[in-house]
Specification:
The complex is a heterodimer of chains A (114) and B (112). Chain A has 114 residues and is mostly beta strands. Helix content of chain A is 0%, strand content 59%. In chain A, a hairpin with a 3-residue loop joins strand 4 and strand 5. The chains are: A mainly beta (114), B mainly beta (112). The interface between A and B is medium-sized, with 31 and 29 residues.
């Protein structure tokens, strides 16, 4: 089975711009979660989509948004970029297992905001 | 707010030594996952534990879930340079909660 893929792998943007990141989950997985990883804060949950609906949301400003398509592929968008948005953005797809969700991560998109 | 505290934050050891990484919380989790992440890559799932007191072994790695499902440990026997990486624990709540709560990780360096 192919793993989770994310595009692009690297991105450099300027403050004030917007960016869209893409994630293709493992075939058959319907849940896609997004995380932001920074050295200081670690992995922080952004949001989760399941069957095209946002099911859970972390504590991030409204500049961060996402969506999921009928084929389970997902995109996340960050508008009005700030320097602090520089981070590794990780997408994870999952299927339910006993007691919880095992999440499988993509390689991430490294976003640098200058 | 559920939090997971990992310790130690950094660990540098020689090849062949044993080590233990701890993951603690005041909250109960339905499941606990351990991941390893290498620089520039996404975390890779190592194991999931779901039952209080459960012990799982993966070659030289031993994972334990606390009886109360609030803490976990990862023990590595005879560490090798290939074990180098960031080890992350993550707690799940099951059901419709598709997000995980992550600890900040333990950065392990194993020197030959």
């Amino acid at each position: 089975k192919a793993g989770v893929t994310q595009t692009p792998r690297y991105l450099i943007k300027t403050r004030g711009q917007q960016v869209t990141l893409s994630c293709s989950p493992i075939s058959g997985h319907r849940s896609v979660s997004w995380y932001q990883q920074t050295p200081g804060q670690g992995l922080q949950f952004l949001f989760e989509y399941f069957s095209e609906t946002q099911r859970n949301k972390g504590n991030f400003p409204g500049r961060f948004s996402g969506r999921q398509f009928s084929n389970s592929r997902s995109e996340m968008n960050v508008s009005t970029l700030e320097l602090g948005d520089s981070a590794l953005y990780l997408c994870a797809s999952s299927f339910p297992s006993l007691g919880g969700y095992e999440q499988y991560f993509g390689p991430g998109t490294r976003l640098t905001v200058t | 707010t559920q939090l997971l505290e990992q310790s130690p934050q950094f660990l540098s050891i020689q090849e062949g030594e044993n080590l233990t990484v701890y993951c603690n919380s005041s909250s109960v989790f339905s499941s606990l996952q351990w991941y390893r992440q290498e620089p520039g890559e996404g975390p890779v799932l190592l194991v999931t534990v779901v039952t209080g007191g459960e012990v799982k072994k993966l070659k030289r790695l031993t994972f334990q879930f606390g009886d109360a499902r609030k803490d976990s440990s990862l023990h590595i026997t005879a560490a090798q340079p290939g074990d180098t990486g960031l080890y992350l624990c993550a707690g799940g709540n099951g059901g419709s909660q598709g997000n995980l709560i992550f600890g900040k990780g333990t950065k392990l360096s194993v020197k030959p």
